[in-house]
Design a protein that fits this description.
single chain, mainly beta, Immunoglobulin-like, 3 domains, six-stranded antiparallel beta barrel, 3 helices
């Protein structure tokens, strides 16, 4: 299958990123953001979509506050991977009916996500800061983590929008088109061989990291015609289907358009791939974007008490802007009995010792430097039978699965009950963790980097770490 929408579209040709695919034939007329089998918008339905011209390429974008547009990372870089200068980028907004009647606005700053990967399209998001507000435009609020989770539930209805071609090789349209889409389950979206039926049509997974991406596709009611975004629609919005639309995704990539690619109808239909905006809220905030809600906080996954100890495990919900977590444990009856632990990014737990048996503790977590603190979790420390320390695991083998995917084989050993075992891989450019299941850990790493991986077993009695397993991916 050939990947599409991995770079912006020029006025004469569609350019694809280097994922081992060929460039389709040059197009005879300007290519604009595209929606296949879409519909005309109702009056006032779409007021936040903008067209982005960057170094001769065209993309979509979403105005999310008076001065900021969110678009795709691959729309903000040139063929060499360097971010466009502001003078090379303009934003157009205006009539939803005629593309050529839109007004042009200058851009003061272009910021590509610092971890954007041109090969995998991971972190495919960018921010354009306008020189002046767009008069008359209505911005679209960015969904919070909780709102995004609710909107992007499998089988929920969402929308996208854009201008342009009405089929993979068809003519463009001067009328803005809206795509009514359905969210695909993360389990299928992130798989290589899984499938899911949506409105009578079977769609297959696209093997992406669903912490950073979401899949969506549509079907025209009562037909077998597929609704999809297409080439040139990169950077446009994926938004909630309600009275107050909220931005939940950015058009990123996919295979073919609406079940058709350069070889004709596809035997296996696939969904469109969208960057999951909620994974980047702290970074967007750091760029001055008004997301309309407080910056998200990490969450407590579990707090397991021991005889006089507490093992706290947290998760970041995919946020990438903060380097460390801080976990706080405070005796609810005595403010003097309080403890905290700083956990580096890439790790997810901390073991507190010497707590008071029988006492209740409130556990909270926040990003270091952030004022936003999680809701407390209350745990009572009670005398329990002693726990056997974990056995040191061993990494015995590793496989390069291609595309940055690595499988690690771990000899877990006879671990005590309630022992967690995972693998941590680190390099100069990336840190990654993965839980060991059935003696295997699956990680997504950066190709070309040198990695040191360790298997870690941990319970309330302590931690055991394997010898380092080193390799170059």
């Amino acid at each position: 299958m050939s990947r599409r929408r991995v770079l912006a579209v020029s006025a004469s040709a569609l350019i694809l990123a280097s994922i081992g695919v060929t460039t389709p034939a040059a197009l005879a007329d300007p290519v604009r953001p595209q929606v296949v089998n879409g519909r005309d918008p109702s009056p006032g339905e779409i007021r936040s979509l903008v067209s982005v011209s960057a170094g001769g390429y065209w993309c979509g974008g979403t105005l999310v506050d008076p001065l900021h547009v969110i678009t795709a990372g691959h729309c903000s870089v040139n063929d060499n991977g360097s971010t466009f200068r502001p003078s090379q980028v303009t934003v157009r907004w205006g009539s939803s009916k005629y593309f050529d009647e839109q007004r042009t606005y200058a851009v003061a700053q272009v910021t590509t996500h610092p971890e954007y990967d041109r090969n995998t399209l991971d972190n495919d998001i960018a921010v354009l800061t306008l020189a002046n507000p767009i008069s008359g435009a209505t911005s679209m609020a960015v969904a919070s983590v909780a709102e995004s989770q609710a909107v992007l539930t499998a089988r929920n209805s969402v929308r996208s929008a854009g201008y342009g071609r009405l089929s993979f090789t068809g003519a463009g349209s001067d009328v803005l088109q809206v795509a009514d889409l359905t969210v695909m389950s993360d389990s299928v979206c992130g798989s290589r061989n899984g499938s899911e039926r949506i409105d009578g049509i079977t769609f297959y997974g696209v093997d992406v990291d669903t912490a950073h991406f979401v899949c969506a596709i549509g079907v025209v009611p009562g037909t077998t015609r597929i609704i999809d975004t297409c080439q040139g629609d990169s950077g446009g919005p994926l938004f909630s289907n309600d009275a107050t639309p909220r931005l939940v995704g950015v058009v990123s990539s996919g295979y073919g358009c609406a079940g058709v690619d350069d070889n004709g109808p596809m035997a296996e239909k696939t969904p469109g791939i969208y960057t999951r905006v909620s994974a980047y809220l702290p970074w967007l905030t750091s760029q001055g974007v008004d997301i309309g809600t407080a910056a998200p906080t990490p969450r407590i996954v579990s707090a397991v008490p021991g005889a006089d100890s507490l093992l706290v495990v947290v998760t970041s919900d995919g946020n990438v802007n903060f380097d460390n977590y801080q976990i706080y444990v405070e005796n609810t009856a005595s403010a003097e009995d309080a403890w905290y632990c700083t956990v580096p990014k890439g790790e997810d737990s901390c073991l507190f010792d010497d707590l008071t048996p029988g006492a209740e503790y409130a556990v909270t977590v926040r990003y270091e430097g952030s004022e936003e603190v999680s809701e407390p979790t209350y745990v009572t420390i009670s005398v329990v039978p002693s726990v056997t320390p974990p056995v040191r695991p061993e990494i015995t083998k590793g496989w390069d699965m291609g595309g940055g995917k690595v499988k690690i084989k771990v000899r877990v050993g006879q671990q005590p009950e309630s022992t967690k075992v995972w693998v941590r891989c680190t390099s100069k450019v990336k840190k990654a963790n993965a839980t060991v299941k059935n003696g295997r850990a699956n990680l997504r790493l950066t190709p070309g980097a040198k990695y040191s991986c360790k298997a870690i077993a941990e319970n309330v009695a302590g931690r055991a770490v394997s010898k380092a397993f080193r390799f170059t991916l």
